[in-house]
Amino acid sequence: MKNFTFYSPTEIIFGKDSELQVADEIIKHGGTRVMVLYGGGSAVRSGLIAKVEQTLKKAGLPFLTVGGVQPNPRVSFARDAVAKAIAFGADFFLGVGGGSVIDTAKAVAHGVANPDTDLWLFWTREKELTKSMPVGAVLTISAAGSETSDSAVLTNMELGVKRGLNTPFNRPRFAIMNPELTYSLPPFQVSCGIVDIMMHTLDRYFTPTEGNEITDEIAESLLRVVIKNGRIAHENPHDYDAMSELMWCGSLSHNGLTGLGAVTDFAPHQLGHELSARFDVAHGASLSTVWGSWAAYCWRDKPERFVRFADKVWGIRKSGTEETVKAAIAQMVSYFASLQMPTCFTQLGIGAQSDDVLRQLADSCVFHGKRTIGGFKKLDGKDVYEIYKKANY
Fold this sequence. Notes:
Blueprint: E1 11-14, H1 22-28, E2 34-38, H2 42-45, H3 48-58, E3 63-66, H4 75-88, E4 92-97, H5 99-113, H6 120-123, E5 135-139, E6 151-156, E7 161-166, E8 174-177, H7 187-205, H8 213-235, H9 240-254, H10 267-279, H11 283-298, H12 303-314, H13 321-338, H14 345-348, H15 355-365, H16 381-391
Parallel strand pairs: 1-8, 2-3, 2-4, 4-5, 5-8
Antiparallel strand pairs: 6-7
Helix pairs in contact: 4-5, 7-8, 7-9, 7-11, 8-9, 8-12, 10-11, 10-15, 11-13, 11-16, 12-13, 15-16
């Protein structure tokens, strides 16, 4: 086990009707003027936004509600929201939705705290983020884990680039988690969320680090719980127990716990980000599209890790290493398919791409040769190209 520092300060308020505590939480964490951010119309149609607004009114908290956050959240939207928040005098930012909404709330908080710096410069690392403002979350999608994580992603549509930012300033002060708020999700979004939860753990689990027993066991048990309850939720998204397990697993999968003491990978995430940036596809769908190809390309660098994955997560025990690994990869891909998640470019809806496009994707993924990706196996532009090529059918 490697040295680590673990800090996960987000207060969790979990269970039925927990959203009714939102005003109390904002006041407790110092908020006096609130910007409420949300995505599409479902949060309005379900009555959740009205419920949140009524709770804020009852507590005497002035608020400004701004909707329209899109999947693969846009830096352009965040910039506009920063201007509105400054004009309103917001000192607390509440994301009501999933990862895209919460990530946007984080970005707006950073922007308001640093009004003389363009937001995108934080995401490109041209400027260091040294201060921000408080953020809270009312979670409606079990997926990204943004409600407890130190990360946030933004997409620059003008540049065709999607980037992530990790900083302690991204940790929300509180997260309200009522599994019933996920009941209105369409099956596709439920499935995308299941994939995202699993990938946040898999991208930490596949590591060259040895002797990390308790972290490995936590990751493996989380994956087994998601697999079991993901099947139930896919068939019945109103199953409270299954949706509860997925919601809590989503938070644990991305608060850092499942990768403590180990080198992390996150290559599939980087591969998926390029697909989302270029084709504006759902994040979870991009991950299921590339994972099987990544695994098929990388497993020989440390086959014993995949053998453990086969045994501990899937209960697969074959006589030979290669047979075991290939069976485990096939089982994982089959599970994604059972959720109606894509596992190749054609299923993703973008079709087989030209060789030139594959090379462009690979070049962008490694920042035009300025970086490699991955920790399990370090991947350069040629490696990334080969992985995209495996998924290109």
